[in-house]
What does this fold into?
Amino acid sequence: MTWSLIALNVIIFLATWPLFNDERALMSFFGEWAMIPIEVTSEGEYHTMLTSMFLHGGAMHLFGNMLFLYLYGDNVEDLLGPVRFLMFYLASGFAAAFAHLLTNVGSPVPTVGASGAIAGVMGAYLLLFPKAKIDVLFFIVIFIRIFTLPAWVILGFWMVTQVFSGFTVATGGGGVAYWAHIGGFVAGLALIFPVWAARGGPRFWERTGYHPDHRPTFTTRTTTVPVVRRQR
It folds into this structure.
């Protein structure tokens, strides 16, 4: 399902790519399918809370979101299964959209992107696998370093920056829907908590070592074929 969601997002973006050469056509399309808070609250355009999850404002916007979905989605899906993962993903996306609506009720700015739903996946990952190792690329002037840090550091720091920006950056500042990220992340934590608790809570961490279960891609089987040793 993770790969299917990535493929669907990419296909939709490629289908809309020609519109990026015509600003009027692009704005008309976003006016119909992107989530515009004031139109949702005043005109009941609730379908855009779903459709906006599969739209992106540019190639880098798409790439960043799909990269994070790829990094965190498969391990959460392994635990939930594809159907429940899809339901979880969409529920997180709706929660993110609702959080954005609450904090931008009168905004006429179109909102697009899968980041709210993906934030939910990140929240789930944080609870399930807090010590999973994540490689982080740092650019220091002209030097590039890769550091391996636990998930709780990376995702915890990311969440802190979203909350800080949500309270300090003006509405729509930088084109980032910080409260959608916060809403999706909190929803992901809340939705995955019963699953984590049902699997034993802290005992689940003990069994997994706080890491995803990386199963081998092959199995070792016994065989009745006799072993023939080389004769000297």
Q: What stands out?
A: The chain has a mean pLDDT of 82. The CA atoms of residues 52 and 117 lie 11 Å apart.
